[in-house]
Each structure stands twice: as C-alpha cells, then as structure tokens.
Amino acid sequence: MKLKNICLALVLSVSLSGCADWIYRIDIPQGNFLDEKDVKQLRIGMNKEQVTYVLGNPVIQDSFDQDTWYYVYEIKRGMSKRGKDFRKELVISFEDGVLTQVTGDFELSEDFNTPLDQ
C-alpha cells in the first residue's frame, strides 16, 4: 500500500511539473528604450537640450558629474520562449554643456563627428 502511494505521488509530481510553462509570465522592461535611428541623430557639439529632445531624459545622471548621462535599457523575460534577457547601455559625455563623446552598445552615424552647424 505504501509503495502504491509513493508511486502515485511521484507520478503526480512529475506530471504537474510539466505544467509550469502554462503559467503566463510578463516581460519586465526597465529604463530608456532607445531606437537605433534616434541614436544616429546625435552629433558632436549638440547641447544638453538637443540631446534630451532626441533621446529623452537619461535614466541616470551622476550626482557628482553633471556632464555624464547614462541611458540604460534592460528587459527580463518572463518566459524563455520569448528570448533571452538583454541589456543595452549608452553613455554620453559633455564638456562645457556640449556633447563630446558617446560610448555604449549602439553604433553612431558616420556623420557623428560633423557638427550640426555645418
């Protein structure tokens, strides 16, 4: 009798573990979603207001360095079927209120080093 109960419990637990994918779990996006075409609009020499117009407000502004902005986007997938978790970053540096350097996971346009005034 005990063996029968143990076998029944084992079969039930194995069969119920197969139902784990039936539960819907949402993706959790956080941060600034940046489109590649928006990042390609950046030009050296832009002021902070122009960068904010193109990309929006940064997620993180360093309290001790007002000339460095961090745009971070991260998504945690609720279900592995929808893909892997990923993270993208863009760090923008200003000098005297003017854009001087952009680093991160995005490609810049070929015209990045051409100021807007020309």
What does this structure look like?
InterPro entries: BamE (IPR026592), BamE-like (IPR037873), BamE_dom (IPR007450). Part of the outer membrane protein assembly complex, which is involved in assembly and insertion of beta-barrel proteins into the outer membrane. It is found in: Cell outer membrane. Helices cover 24% and strands 27% of the residues. The model has no long low-confidence stretch (mean pLDDT 85). A hairpin with a 2-residue loop joins strand 4 and strand 5. Strands 1, 2, 3, 4 and 5 form a five-stranded antiparallel sheet that branches. The protein has three helices and five strands, in the order H-E-H-H-E-E-E-E. With 118 residues, the chain is α+β, with helices and mostly antiparallel strands.
